Amino acid sequence: MKNDVESGQNNKKALIARARTVGWLLFLLAIAVFGKLIRVQYYDEFKGKTWAEYSAKNDLKIDTIPAMRGNIYSVDDRLLATSLPYYYVGLDTKVADSAYFRNNIDELSSLLAKSFGEHTAAGYKNKIMRYRVSKSKRYLRLKSRQISHLDREKIKKWPFFVKNRKGGGGKFETIYRRYKPFSPMADRTIGGIDPKSGRGYIGLEASFDKNLEGKAGIGWVEMVEGGMKIPVGDALNVQPEAGRDIYTTLDMNFQDRAEIALRRKLIESKANYGCVIIMEVATGEIRAMANLTKRGEGKYEEVFNYAVAGGADPGSTFKLPTMMALLEETKMNPDQITVNTGAGSVRFRGTSINDSKRGGHGVLTATQVFEKSSNIGVHMLMQRYFFSKPDTYLSYLKKFHLTTPTGIHMKGEKPPYIKDRTSKQWSAYSLTFMSYGYEMSMTPLQTLALYNAVANDGYWVRPMIVREIRNAEGVEDKIPPYVEDKPIASPETIKKVKTMLEGVVKAGSAKNISSELYQIAGKTGTAQKLINGIYTPGKYYTSFAGYFPADKPKYSAIVIIDTPQGSGANYTLYAGSVAAPVFKEVADRIYAYDVSIQKPIKDTLPETSKDVKWAGRSADLNIISKELKLTPVPEGSEYAAASLLKKGKTNWQSRNMSSRDVPDLQGMAMRDALYILENKGFNVTFKGSGKVVEQSLPPGTSAAGNKTILLTLQ
Questions:
Q1: Which candidate, 639, 634, 635, places its Cα nearest to that of 614?
Q2: Which of 211, 235, 338, 382 has its CA 20 to 30 A from that of 426?
Q3: What torsion do the CA atoms of 194, 196, 199, 200 make, to the nearest 10 degrees?
Q4: Average of pLDDT values for 497-511?
């Protein structure tokens, strides 16, 4: 029994030993095979090249097929950005059989020379023939640049590209190129694509890249010389999935008006850069976002998004939250509280605080302090009510949403910098300087969000620039407006500051932009620039923030003009003379465009316009008179007007449009009136439709003064 057990143990040990030996032999064999493969692939040569090199040139591989990137649309569904396919044209010279090649090479060469023109027909033929007989080359690009989709459809009918059992070899390599129909308008806001990665790197292209990029497909490609990848057939293992479409809140009509007004003022003032944002009050939807930077004498381009990422001292536009904090804390009647601002300059702890008006404002009510933008007045009110409790003032700034980003769905928003007393930069002057917009940093969008909240009866609205994301089946994600459920201040405070903001335009620092048609409410801001750590007189960051129409606000807006230049007095470089006029020009255009905010048009025509039936260019009117068999238009005048007399007779009168004075436009179509006035340098607004029945500047008025005119059409 003992011998049997020992025998069994010995057999088991022998089996284990043999298994180990076999295992080691297999392991050594695997290493040998692997080594041989490495040697064959990378070291053994055939006709001077390794097999790895041949594989890289001629092997079929699985590769990703790029997806069509999604489109970006405006609020009225106009295309803002899309991907257009372009193609490299190539020929695999070894695919067609000999007979087909011989019978069609001349026709192909002739078509290439005629369409592409990079070589003669003989030159194309010789090059194709060399590749045909070469042992190392086979694929030839026939044109150095890409072609359009329309060109591709034409080429598909050529020899070697048309489907033929014995032919073939023609190839198209697809390249997608981003196209913006309205470029350069809103370029920085819409964004751009990195040409190497195909990913969005700025603006909406970057912020919504994951939605726009889609999902790449997978398909077979042939790797040929030069590292080029040639598609093999049309069948793909995995079809690419197109990106989602982004529907923004931008309106290109508003964007156009904003950029035109901004560019004109930047060129006039030779400023460094400028920004305009237009936002809908109730929803926070951004209708326009213009950012222009100086790129040479008189040349401005969109190269940086100041609206979202450009932080700076806001200056006197920050007096709005300061006044709101004062009203919330004290419940004062701002028309009864007064301060003596003196002769325009006071000393505070060894530092001068100055007002822009020479000689000062003297005694002012709190309302007048705001309307006239008195730094001294704000300082005195702060000294009276908040110097003993600075943390209370800072808590109001937090309540007004001024210490955090707006949260707009765009990458790159710069957080506001509003320090508190724990900051190392806090000093004995900080509370005063902060109260009128210094020692801090805010973006134009963050400032606008506060003014928009005031216009919206105190309810803060998050700015938004994308409203929907759609796929082929419909809406995939709808982004609703975000409105705080509690107001940032009491109704009494909001009502008081609204009156103050209207007062700024009626009788304060922006009275030059007051309009007879509608009321603008807003605040100017002129901040000295911080250069090398020193606030520098004569170098200003100017702004105007506000909303309109003041009685029923629909739009809020902010204008920034940085470092305007001029040879006149300093006040010509202040916000009231630089930023505020841009705001008014944009608001005037929007008021004329959006009939929903216009006041009702009178039903009755002015007596002077009842008899005028037609007016315009004599050549046009002569065609009408002949068609209607009326009295001919008299010769010798470029413009004329007509009224009907009894028995169908027409009374024609010449109109003189060459005078520098305001012309008589009654009876004219808007097209003719606009052409005449804009050539004379007028800023034209209008209401209604049809023919001109009334003009705000009477005919014959000197055009040397007011250059803004309102036309009533009916």
A1: 639
A2: 338
A3: 0
A4: 96
Q: What type of residue sits at position 306?
A: Y
Residue found under tokens 């994308």: 466
Query: Distance between CA 189 and CA 400 in Å, rounded?
Result: 26
**Predicted TM-score of the model (pTM):** 0.75
Secondary structure of 389-449 in HEC code, one letter for each residue: CHHHHHHHHHHCCCCCCCCCCCCCCCCCECCCCCCCCCCCCHHHHHHCCCCCEECHHHHHH
Determine the angle formed by the axes of helices 319-330 and 491-507, rounding to 10 degrees: 140
Element housing 470 (H / E): strand 466-471
DSSP for 151-198 reads HHHHHTTSTTTS--TT---EEEEEEEEEE-TTTTTTHHHH-EE-TTT-
Of 704, 581, 513, the C-alpha closest to 266 is 581
Instruction: Tell which residue, 405, 85, 394, has the closest CA to residue 240.
Output: 85
Tell me which residue of 484, 578, 477, 592 sits closest to 212, measured CA to CA. 477
Q: What is the distance between the alpha carbons of residues 308 and 189, in angstroms, rounded to a whole number?
A: 9
CA-to-CA distance for 498 and 550, rounded, in angstroms? 8
Q: Which two tokens stand for residue 177?
A: 């190129």
Q: What value does the mean pLDDT take over residues 383-403?
A: 97
> At residue 230, does pLDDT exceed 70?
no
**Nearest C-alpha neighbor of 92 from the set 237, 229, 235, 234:** 229
User: Where are any strands of DSSP class E within 295-359?
Assistant: 300-301, 338-340, 345-348, 351-354
In this predicted model, what pLDDT tens digit does every residue of 653-668 receive, in sequence order? Answer: 778 777 778 888 888 8
The tokens describing 627, both together, are: 């068609």
Report which secondary-structure segment, H or E, holds 531.
Answer: strand 521-531
The residue whose two tokens read 């008179």 is 625
The position carrying tokens 């004109």 is 264
595-631, pLDDT tens digit by residue? 899 887 554 444 444 455 667 777 777 777 777 777 7
- The CA-atom distances, in angstroms, between 54 and each of 35, 51, 132, 231, 320 are 19, 5, 17, 18, 73
- Long-range contact pairs involving 614-617 (C-beta distance under 8 Å, separation at least 24): 614/641, 614/642, 614/667, 615/639, 615/640, 615/641, 615/642, 615/655, 615/665, 615/666, 615/667, 615/668, 615/672, 615/691, 615/692, 616/640, 616/667, 616/668, 616/669, 616/672, 617/672
- Are 86 and 66 a contacting pair, CB within 8 Å? no
CB 664 within 8 A of CB 640: no
CB atoms within 10 A of CB 238: 13
CA–CA distance, 495 with 484 (Å, rounded to integer): 18
Spell out the residues 6+ positions from residue 337 whose beta carbon is closer than 8 angstroms to its own: 365, 366, 381
Q: Which two tokens stand for residue 568?
A: 């006149």
pLDDT for residue 627: 73
- 88-122: per-residue pLDDT in tens? 999 989 889 999 999 999 999 999 999 999 999 99
Of the pLDDT bands very low, low, confident and very high (cuts 50, 70, 90), residue 1 is: very low
Q: Phi and psi of 294, rounded to 5°? A: -70, 125
How far is the C-alpha of 422 from the C-alpha of 612, rounded, in Å? 73
Compute the mean pLDDT over every residue in the chain, rounded to the nearest whole number.
86
The two counts, helices (H) then strands (E), for the chain are: 20, 30
CA dihedral 634, 638, 644, 650 (to 10 degrees): 10
Strand partners, 347: 352
Whole-angstrom Cα distance, residue 108 to residue 93?
12
Beta bridge partners of 301: 293
Please name which of 466, 404, 452, 460 lies closest in space to residue 557, comparing C-alpha atoms: 452
Amino acid letter for position 423: S
